[in-house]
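Hi P.,

Sorry for the delay on this. The queue was packed all week, but I finally got your sequence through. Input first:
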Amino acid sequence: MARVLSGMQPTGRLHIGHYLGVLNNYNHLQNEHECFFMVANLHSLTAFYSDYSQIQSFIEPLVSDWLAAGIDPEKAVIFLQSDVPEHSELSTILSMYTPVSWLTRNPTYKEKQENIDKDIDSHGFLGYPVLQAADILLYQASLVPIGEDQLPHLELTREIARRFNHYNRKGEQDVFKIPDAALSNFPKVLGTDGRKMSKSYANTLILSEPEEEITKKMRQMKTDTARVRRDDPGNPENCPVFTYYDFFAPELKSNVDKECRTAAIGCKDCKAQLLEKMQPRLEPFREKRAETLAKPDLIPEILNHGAKAARETAKNTMAQVKEFMGMKTYSSL
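Then the structure:
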């Protein structure tokens, strides 16, 4: 049984991209491995440092989305990142081993600076991959569930771990395991504008939205831009809507592909038949989420229990880190 670490930032309501790309992966992993699922509120500070209350307001709704999607606190450790101070401690140590050039070459560093309408030109934003590495290495995770676009982030974690191990190896023994990726079956879910679905781009289909709102957004969703008229043949490979058939209606995908290419079906009809399959799949999620939020003590209890379990593992790792570094502890606290 491998150990898994993954997390999400509480920066807004979860969307279908999270559901297809992340939460379904979590569901499978929790039944096969030892899983730690983290609400990454410290990472959220890169963009919301000026008003933490925004982050706080999203923490419990985020966990309710996880529970509604089938994440089970009896099978996985669910915890809040800031409840485990060892994350920040290990991040500080690892930052001393991380060259600045490794951080500035991060492929999402400049992309986010260009696309996010917030002041994120900070030390924390530049160095957040180090905190990300600390998150993973603190639990000695063997597997990290990610999409293909996040592989460079994981490789940076691997490089930091190797560098730390190089300087602090004891004979043949290393401190940190080198983690591997557990790639999602849906590595890139497209948004309503054709770009990757992201809260930053305002192109999302929110999981907790009512049926009418999902329907409205789907009807407005971008399709093959080269298909101008109803009788023009389309190319499903260029259509964001078509990608949703993989999950919500795989049995219709082959026929839709053929009908689109021959103009036997229009974009309006294509969206309509997808919605007929999609909405019934989302309704149980909405119902379970509402049930969870109706129990105000449930999520705090889950996070409290999860923090205790996470800290036990984190303390053991930090003790090992300090031992290998030769860093003595004089305090009994």
